[in-house]
Design brief:
Helix content: 10-25%
CATH topology: Ubiquitin-like (UB roll)
CATH superfamily: Phosphatidylinositol 3-kinase Catalytic Subunit, Chain A, domain 1
CATH class: Alpha Beta
Largest sheet: 2 strands, antiparallel
Strand content: 15-25%
Structural class: alpha+beta
Oligomer: single chain
Amino acid sequence: MFLNCCTVLIQVQNVEQQNKLQQARLLRTPQEPKESEQSISVEIKVPHISLGIVKRNFHESDCMACVYDWVGSLSIIPVHFQLLDYAGRMLLPSQPVKQAKNTTLCMSEAMSTPPLDDEEVTFLGFGINEWEPLDDSNYLVHPISETVPEQLLECDER
């Protein structure tokens, strides 16, 4: 019985994390170009793993990260995926969206979504993101005293 409750709790946490990821991707997805901007837009078609063929227009100046965010915002499944061109080459988030013009991309489930070029900055949904809830028990918080301590560190002289 206890094992079943733990399994259900883990599944609920996973769904919550997937929903947070989907929301983060949705918030980063740019607005679709207006009809007056159709001449400078790129239509992207993706056979989505769980939704079938989906299509949308992007600005020519957008990068593939926008496409990854859009595709990832449509469903919580799959969590991680790659977008491939007709030759099976992975399209990186940093590449211009123009490279996918007039083609149907392939969506492939993956262990992680391709990372952005900048390895110091990561966004939820790109690269490997570990989902670990914060454990407050690891952090000790002491109340602040109104008097200044005589010794700040153990190595300080008194």
